[in-house]
Amino acid sequence: MKAIRTFTVRPVLSESLAPLDRLASNWRWSWSRATHALFASMDPALWDEIGANPARMLGALGQERLDELARDEAFVQRVHAEDERLTAYLDGDRWFQHLEGPKPAHIAYFSPEFGVDGSLPQYSGGLGILAGDHLKSASDLGVPLTGVGLFYRAGYFRQSIGDDGWQRESYPLLDPYGLGLTLLRESDGSPVEIALDLPSDRRLYARVWVADIGRIPLLLLDSETPSNSDEMRRVTDRLYGGGGEHRLLQELLLGVGGVRAVRAFCRITGRPTPDVYHTNEGHAGFQGLERMSELITHDGLGFDAALAQVRASTVFTTHTPVPAGIDRFPRDLIADFLASGLFQNLDAGRAIALGLETWDGGDQSVFNMAVLGLHLGQHANGVSELHGEVSRGMFGMLWPGVDTDEVPITSITNGVHAPTWVHPALKAVSERAFGDAHTDAHDWTNREAVTDAELWGVRQQMKGELVAEARRRVAAGVGNGHTPSWIADLLDPEVLTIGFARRVPTYKRLTLMLREPERLTKLLTDPERPVQIVIGGKSHPADDSGKILIQQLVRFSRDPKVRGRIVFLPDYDISLAKGLYPGCDVWLNNPLRPLEACGTSGMKAALNGVLNLSILDGWWDEWYDGENGWAIPTADTASNDEERDDAEASALYDLIEHQLVPRFYEREGGIPLRWLSMVRHTMTELGKKATSDRMVRDYVTRLYVPAAEHDGALRADGFAEARALADFVRRVTDAWPRVSVAGVDSSGIPAQAQAGDTLEVRAEVRLDGLSPDDVAVELAYGRTDEDDALARDHSVHRLEPAGPAVDGVTTFTGALPLTVTGTFGYTVRVVPSHPQLVSPVELGLVTYPV
Ligand SMILES: *Cc1c(COP(=O)(O)O)cnc(C)c1O
């Protein structure tokens, strides 16, 4: 019989163990080596069995064992020491508190998934794990941020592989109480309930769970509440429910319900109202419409002023370089919801226009969440430099007439949370050698701090653990109680180990390594210098093509000829990942460039001293430096996908055979010294860049601080500047079709220009009713290429009005300094000018001379 609901009965803790409750309900335990070890030590076997979670551990341990521990003085002392450490962690000043200048008061961070720990499977891949790492680094840095998401009753599915090699899924139900989450309650003790009015007189209610991620509260909305109809209870049943209305209801709950949950949370806890709203991908886009509706209803703003205010304070991060990866809903469905009274006083026609594909070739029947995100976020970014560039190209049609490289989408490269992802054994080396476990200041190239023997020793230890774990998992997967003898020889810690694990969408090319099975077999079975490969990955449950790829790999790996040297480990998730990355020598990544927006698994590997072997895509395109691993050349010129896969697979085999293998097996005193020097270089250089601490600092200084400043400026004096900006936008948008550059006087340029000369430039501009202050007349100059295009690093200089308009023409003048030699060019353009614009071209209004 299957229970329809499960819950946890908590034991009574004696006074001496009372702090365990608090330690168990703050997820900092998951990245604090000592707290983690404390809970595991209460009963190591049980800890693994219940899925490594302190709250569950307390529920499972039994009163007898707890009483025994309460009498163990050494244990009680550890409990109190950890409790004091937690207090110090939660209270102290950190990076953010020392930051000079204006700062955001509170950032609300929305994401459809959060990957905080293996025991809280509210994620399905990189997007969610990135969000989890964002919260953890925000906590470590003292950034006042609150996470907002949904609580899915069935989390990330568990994967097993059948005898036929086919993926099977199961969905264990999660009990939030048993995981250490607490219900958000009013001061009178009643649970906070969020309500959304929907079409056909339906109402969606949600309760709010709070997970404490160190200093960061994470609010998770849950539709499992008695107030809901059965239909509405199912809204948060699982991650990314189907398509159509189920998914839309989830996104409405996340965006609209999320804003309402943040309001309740601030009211109850006394936190300041957020002045920055960050949406991780487009799923939470409705948060902006909800906030506009608030501003219109409670502050008396018009639609345009409310839009200006919301834009100023919104940061939108896009994660997908493939148009097919963007969330889109039928336009009519959205229209029904907008007409239902969900958003008070919001003009439905104008609101819907914010998500429409109005460009040539756009689909007029859909509502596009990325378009909504870009319209509502004045601050937008991609997640690596290359992905920023791809995004500017992909979304350029929203800014017609604007050069692609000026499309207002910047980039902040992702990072990973080092305390979560660095193996405890390596953290211990770090603490011994450098005094702490931070990665960004450590010089691993210093052989006196860490000897070759010590470094190689810890790398071998981590590999040994992976080998043991792989054997354990494969034996468990056989499932008939008897372990085939070959499992005892599965993998070998002395062999060069390549890891490859990820979700299985086509572009990641799970099976590229199988392109030439004989070549792969030869590498795996080389009698002197073999290679072994550890693979993991989950296919989306509805994606049979991904399951076929997994099946191909599993079948290949079961061939007795290669069986000990290549293994597919089922159920790739955070728990497996934590042991998998450190246990490899090399991390392989072979997506179709440029479809991997960033990729983060290779960063987690690098922080553990693993070398990357990757296509130059995402982060690797930016940070590959010739010494931190290998770049698989991209066959961009191939005439079709087959040819491209052939060429790239062949380059992959060549690199392994001619570069990796010789270097790995070249030994001095049993240690691969040249290999280790690449490891040292990787850990030192990528230790500075690849962390989510660096990433969160970038978000704060480059996007959150400006967003908070714009928000404050627009809000001041009863939203005076928001109204003024809205008026300005309307005025320049109306007048712009008639703005023109009537002439540019270049007569001052002599035939023989010399570096150091300055030249007078005069531009005559028709402003048609706009004042000279409404525009910037810009002189752009610099080197040009053979097509007369200005180089990307060109300079921009603002021309000044020379006097009042004559016959509707205003003259602007300025000096053009000739600072560089060679082919040089310039142009003049007119753009709107207002102190509250982030980019001069963000309104899509640019006029060049005809
Ligand atoms: C880091 C991580 C990912 C994302 O890795 P990519 O390199 O972006 O594919 C996916 N799943 C798990 C379990 C991870 O830990």
Topology:
Blueprint: H1 19-24, H2 33-40, H3 44-49, H4 54-60, H5 63-70, H6 73-91, H7 95-98, E1 107-110, E2 114-115, E3 121-122, H8 126-141, E4 145-150, E5 158-161, E6 167-170, E7 182-183, E8 194-198, E9 202-213, E10 216-222, H9 230-233, H10 244-269, E11 276-280, H11 286-299, H12 303-312, E12 314-317, E13 328-330, H13 331-338, H14 348-353, E14 366-368, H15 369-376, E15 379-382, H16 385-394, E16 410-411, H17 418-421, H18 424-434, H19 452-478, E17 496-501, H20 517-525, E18 531-536, H21 544-557, E19 566-568, H22 574-583, E20 586-589, H23 601-607, E21 611-615, H24 618-623, E22 629-632, H25 641-665, H26 673-689, H27 692-735, E23 740-745, E24 758-766, E25 775-783, E26 795-801, E27 809-817, E28 824-832
Parallel strand pairs: 1-4, 1-11, 4-10, 11-12, 12-15, 15-16, 17-18, 17-20, 18-19, 20-21, 21-22
Antiparallel strand pairs: 2-3, 5-6, 7-9, 8-9, 9-10, 13-14, 23-24, 24-27, 25-26, 25-28, 26-27
Helix pairs in contact: 8-27, 10-11, 11-12, 12-27, 19-22
This protein binds pyridoxal-5'-phosphate.
Residues 125-126, 129, 502, 572-574, 577, 599-601, 604 line the site of pyridoxal-5'-phosphate (PLP).
